[in-house]
Amino acid sequence: MSQIQNHVKNSSHILVLGMGGTIAGLASNPDSNPLQYEAGQVEISALLAQIQSAIPGEIGLVSEQLANINSCNMSEPLLTLLGRAVKDALDNSRVEGIVITHGTDTIEETGLFLQLVCGRFAQNLGKRVVLTGAMLPANASNADGLKNLLDAIHWAASPLDNSPGGIYAVMGGRVCMAMDLAKRHTTALNAPIQSSPSSPVGLINPSWLSGVKAAEIAWHEDLSIPDGDVWPWVEILTSHTGARSETINLWLESKVQGLVLAGTGMGSLHEQWLEPLSKASKQGVAIVRASRPGAGQVLPNIPEKDFAGCIAAGKFSAPKARIALQLALYAEKQAKSAGKSLTWQDFFARIAVLPEIG
Ligand code: SIN
Predict the structure, then answer these.
(1) H/E element holding 115?
(2) Would 225 be classed as within a structural domain?
(3) CA-closest candidate to residue 104, choices 66, 144, 142
(4) Does the structure show a pLDDT above 90 at 290?
(5) What interhelical angle do 318-337 and 344-352 show, nearest 10?
(6) pLDDT tens for each residue of 305-353
């Protein structure tokens, strides 16, 4: 850490955590082919140096490189590292807000993870944690990363008058709650930020800010962050034309603790899967039914259709349901050791806020 950073660290500042991604990516031929690039090449301190002159003098910045990866390689130990760094920073009275640069490919999983483990804490403290990334590498002529980083820093540092502390995401001039991130386009510049009922996506300008009040949800207690090596093993399986029972039977021979099923339509599953899944559930494998379309909700099935123990993913996509299930399984284990009889289904339902069927 430089002397300047050391000095700033002892006064009020925004902490910028670098995780890598396209925002830190470099293309070998940026002019002819900006989409052929290596993610996670540029240090966060080098990105910040490029925007320093555009940052108002009163905003002190401290950076820390936690990783520099392509987020397709994101791992549970890195989530643990990031979650703990964010919690420590929230707890530090000198840190006014936190910005995280992250690859967009798995930013939605990290966004939900942070919401579940420190969303309440951030809200109570009135501090903003802001995820951002980019769709074009840092050396592309029309690179979007520096503008996104600047916007994210402004959002983390701006007064809370109109919207609360919490876990946000900023990209392409827009902001949303990080738990509502959903990358649904391979190349569009605002790919990870889509409209969502629980946090209306808005442009970063004062007239929009009041809209975020809707996001001031009464968030429940934060869940614990598992140590890097004790995350429950949960896989995602996709139902499709010609799905085979063998797929499920193979998993039954493993030590997998949970399965998230990306079902068709509203979460329907191929009939070939039903018997082995029911067996899996009886063996103690936690099962969550999500869906392939990537938008909309999965409602609980009528009881005679859903096998016992299976729970619907509600508004969560399969990747987000997987993070939620991992944390719910870990919470169940912790509750058990504290002598409480709460199950992973109790925790999952609390997280996913499942709608009731009347
Ligand atoms: C990544 O997720 O690290 C690469 C893709 C991106 O950041 O858009």
Answers:
(1) helix 107-125
(2) no
(3) 144
(4) yes
(5) 140
(6) 667 789 999 989 999 999 999 999 999 999 999 999 999 999 998 888 6
List the domain range (segments joined by +) for residue 332: 234-352
Nearest-CA residue for ligand 1 atom 2 is 103
Q: In this model, does residue 182 exceed pLDDT 70?
A: yes
Residue in 19, 22, 73 to alter for ligand 1 test, most ligand atoms within 8 A of Cβ = 22
Q: Is 70 in the pocket of ligand 1 (CB under 6 A)?
A: yes
- Rounded to two decimals, the pTM is 0.92
Residue 160: band (very low, low, confident or very high) from pLDDT cuts 50, 70, 90: confident
Strands 258-263 and 234-238: parallel
244 and 169, same structural domain? no
Residue 302 clears pLDDT 80, i.e. is over it: no
- Ligand 1 pocket test, pick from 41, 68, 71, 73 with the greatest ligand atom count within 8 Å of Cβ, gives 71
Q: Does 173 reside within a domain? A: yes
CA dist 83 and 157 (Å) reads 20
**Strands 286-291 and 311-312, how do they pair?**
parallel
Whether the predicted pLDDT of 25 surpasses 50: yes
Here the CATH number for the domain that contains residue 87 is: 3.40.50.1170
Share of the chain above pLDDT 70, in %: 87
The answer to whether residues 180 and 61 belong to one domain is: yes
Q: Distance between CA 28 and CA 17 in Å, rounded?
A: 25
87-103 pLDDT per residue, tens:
999 999 999 999 999 99
Residue 1 lies in a domain: no
Measured from the CA of 183, which atom of ligand 1 is nearest?
A: 8
Which among 218, 253, 284 is the end of a domain? Answer: 218
* pLDDT(195) > 90: no
DSSP state, residue 347:
H
Q: What's the number of domains the chain is made of?
A: 2
CA-nearest residue for atom 7, ligand 1, is 103
Kindly state if the Cβ of 135 falls inside 6 Å of ligand 1. Answer: yes
Contact 21 CB / ligand 1 (< 6 Å): yes
41, 44, 68, 70: residue to mutate for ligand 1 pocket, most atoms within 8 A of CB: 70
Pairwise CA distance, residues 167 & 174, whole Å: 14
Cβ(105) to ligand 1 under 6 A? yes
Asked, for residue 227, whether it belongs to a domain, the answer is: no
User: Does residue 129 share a domain with residue 59?
Assistant: yes
